[in-house]
Amino acid sequence: MALAFFGLSIFLFLNLDLDGASFSPASAASDSGPEITYGSVVKLMHEKTKYRLHSHDVPYGSGSGQQSVTGFPNVDDANSYWIVRPQPGKNAKQGDSIGTGAIIRLQHMKTRKWLHSHLHASPISGNLEVSCFGGENESDTGDYWRLMIEGSGKTWKQDQRIRLHHVDTSGYLHSHDKKYQRIAGGQQEVCGVREKRADNVWLAAEGIYLPVTESK
């Protein structure tokens, strides 16, 4: 795990302003954890199975054929980091707080593609496929996810229970214990479902949390 954090730190020092950033491992659930702000780099943990949202440069063998997204069992994995970005055209900048109801994008740190969904069927369960697509200058509304904080919280913090609701398809980011057997053996399916279920709750776990930018 130390090696993964070292590599992440080097990458971020070259790409982000880290003055005051909080390097945070997973912790017990709390309402007083650091805020997740735009530009923060996080791992999202599936509450029910504890797997991390993950991607790698391996395409789906069916559906869209785009870069696959899975749930990964190990904490120490560099392919499970996501950069939190705002919706294009919005007056949001690095370090701004993210409130419930905000539309966000998640950029896979290693491949620079966006967490994406559409109407293709997911490989195992036949639900909505979730993939990674696009790049730094290629993003569309299929990359838009509405942040929904469970409970009374108004701004996104570490360990808060959240749902991500896909704008185009109305599917919730979802996972379950249905696992791949071959290329991603041992990893579990991530997909979208239109019903609100216990299996579509996530928490921000390990990551680098940029400090909240003070208003001037």
Protein model, in words:
- It contains 1 helix and 13 strands.
- By secondary structure, the protein is mainly β.
- The strands form 2 sheets. A 7-stranded antiparallel sheet has the order 1-13-2-5-6-9-10, with no helix packed on it. Strands 3, 4, 7, 8, 11 and 12 form a 6-stranded antiparallel sheet that branches.
- A hairpin with a 7-residue loop joins β3 and β4 (67-72).
- The protein is globular and about 45 Å long.
- The model is unreliable at 1-14 (pLDDT under 50).
Topology:
Layout lengths: L1 H14 L6 E3 L16 E6 L5 E8 L7 E6 L9 E5 L16 E6 L5 E8 L6 E6 L11 E5 L12 E5 L5 E8 L8 E6 L8 E8 L7
Antiparallel strand pairs: 1-13, 2-5, 2-13, 3-4, 4-8, 4-12, 5-6, 6-9, 7-8, 8-12, 9-10, 11-12
Protein name: MIR domain-containing protein
Pfam families: MIR
Keywords: Repeat, Signal
Strand content: 35-45%
Helix amount, in percent? under 10%
Number of strands: 13
Mean pLDDT comes to 88
What would you report as the Rg, rounded to the nearest angstrom?
16 Å
Q: What's the helix-strand series?
A: HEEEEEEEEEEEEE
Short descriptors:
mainly beta; seven-stranded antiparallel sheet; 1 helix; globular; disordered N terminus
Brief overview:
By secondary structure, this protein is mainly beta.
